[in-house]
Amino acid sequence: MVADTLFDRAIAAAPIHGAPGQYAVEFSADWSAPAGPNGGYLAAMVLNAMQLALDDSHSHHPPPTPRPPRSMTLHYMRPPQPGAGTISVATERAGRSMTTLTARIEQGGKTMVVAIAAFGGAREPVLEFAEPMPDAPPVAELKAMPKLEQMPPIAHRFDLHPLPGPYPFTGADRAELGDGRGCRSRGRSTRCCSRSAPTSGCRPSSCA
């Protein structure tokens, strides 16, 4: 993986020489939420290490078809502190169509996060859960939300362009948000919508 964006560099994992499946990582305070590093940021870091481990194993025994990630579950036990840590990746099973990996984020001799993920080839979907993307004007036509003092550091890594609905971080009485998000490192904007309803039509933005 070539680290060519700010986010790529933030989730970079370096193989540790002489320790197969072990990767050195650096936790940045720039991607923190109020309680510690943002969970999605840590998940992206774990997935990156898993994909590096998978690519390494496939270089020796290539599967018949590509195996992109299909699902991942993480358990957050304690928040890592800004600074160095390690991610350990293990192959639990490599079958004909799917590979299952587990990973652990560790820092200071303690386990911070445990993850399990499945990588497999494409299959025909049986069920469709997502709602259609709601209609929304182009992000370029929306005014960016001003940065608020109470926003966590991660909120300063992208611009929010609110659609109808209350601003986040303002203590509004409705947990509903529609917005466009532009990644500050690349100046590129994407749209997403998130709602508190169980059947959310959320399409997360990507800082790539």
- How large is the share of residues in beta strands? 35-45%
Helical content stands at: 10-25%
CATH class of the largest domain: Mainly Beta
Question: Mean of the pLDDT scores?
Answer: 78
CATH 4th-level superfamily of the largest domain: Acyl-CoA thioesterase, double hotdog domain
Q: Could you say which overall geometry the principal axes of the C-alpha atoms support?
A: globular
CATH topology descriptor of the largest domain: Porin
Biggest sheet strand order reads: 1-2-6-7-8-5
Low-confidence stretches: 185-208
Second rung of CATH, namely the architecture of the largest domain? Beta Barrel
Structural class of the helices, strands and pairings? mainly beta
| Helix-strand pattern | HEEEEHEEEEEEE
CA radius of gyration is 19 Å
Describe the 3D structure.
By secondary structure, the protein is mainly beta. It is 13% helix and 36% strand. It is built from 2 helices and 11 strands, in the order αββββαβββββββ. It has helices at 6-10, 39-60; strands at 14-15, 22-27, 32-33, 36-37, 69-76, 83-94, 98-107, 110-120, 158-162, 176-183, 188-195. A 6-stranded antiparallel β-sheet has the order 1-2-6-7-8-5, with helices on one face. Strand 6 (83-94) and strand 7 (98-107) form a beta hairpin. It is globular, with a radius of gyration of 19 Å. It starts with 5 loop residues before the first helix and ends in a 13-residue tail after the last strand. Mean pLDDT is 78; it is low at 185-208.
